[in-house]
Design a protein that fits this description.
- The chain is α+β, with helices and mostly antiparallel strands and 267 residues long.
- It folds into two domains: 3-94, no CATH class; 100-266, 3-Layer(aba) Sandwich (L-fuculose-1-phosphate Aldolase).
- It has helices at residues 3-22, 28-35, 39-47, 57-73, 100-115, 119-122, 169-179, 195-203, 249-266; strands at 81-86, 89-94, 130-133, 143-145, 150-153, 156-159, 164-165, 187-192, 209-210, 212-214, 217-219, 229-232, 241-246.
- The strands form four sheets. The chain has a seven-stranded mixed beta sheet, with helices on both faces.
- Strand 1 and strand 2 form a beta hairpin.
- Helix 1 packs across helix 4.
Length: 267
Amino acid sequence: MPVELNGNLLKELRGRTCRILADEGWTQSNLGSALGVSQVMAGNYLHTLPTRYSEPTESNLQEASLSLAEILKSEESFSWSLNITADDHVLSINFPSQDNKEKILSRISEMRRRLETVLPLLSPQVRVNIAIAANDAKSSSDIAAFPGRLTPVGGKARPLSSPKFGGSNHLSDLLLELRNFDSKISTIINLRWDPMIAEILEKLDINFIKLQRDNDDLLITKKVIESNVMVDEGGYGLEPSLYIFSSDNDFVCKTVEDVASMMKVLA
């Protein structure tokens, strides 16, 4: 059994699984996160033409791809292996799935890379951060963010250090409050808030909720989750901020990109 067959079958397994899930509406970002590869690599898998193997490898491989797709949809792919018998040899492929926290760290880094050129346009004085919660998040230690936030350097939003769990108390607190009303909410980002941003949201037909304050504390109510955008108008010594949140990373990224594109038009 050629050694390369192991790698070729793994690529084919991922490619077929990507196509199955893409047909169900999965984005390349979601595919990459689920399979433990980059968004670009997921796109490569998605657009690679399928190879047809001789039986029984072909049937087994397609069945395995369908099985892996179901496992990934259930978000329970902590361990997975494929055994294929060909020419009286048993080939075992262990799927290199990441655990939930590793997936989140990979996902938040991909979000930063996707948004790195638009975030400087929308950065408040306190700078931008992104936070993503684990499925069962109960405290800030279950929520990943960038320590020190993201700093505009050379037209790109650069991290001072790698993302880690417990990296932002402020966004973690807001995300935990939101999750009290909807546990599916997993991602939040903070941006600047000013009259131009307000005008842009109106032009994009994006509804937002203005938060009330109790001294230094923002009050999150159930009404807030009727929108995916909330605004802190700030106060004495407190900079106004816009927050975009969702259960879908791609939705958050797309909204940020739309706001940035409109800002370029109005500038």
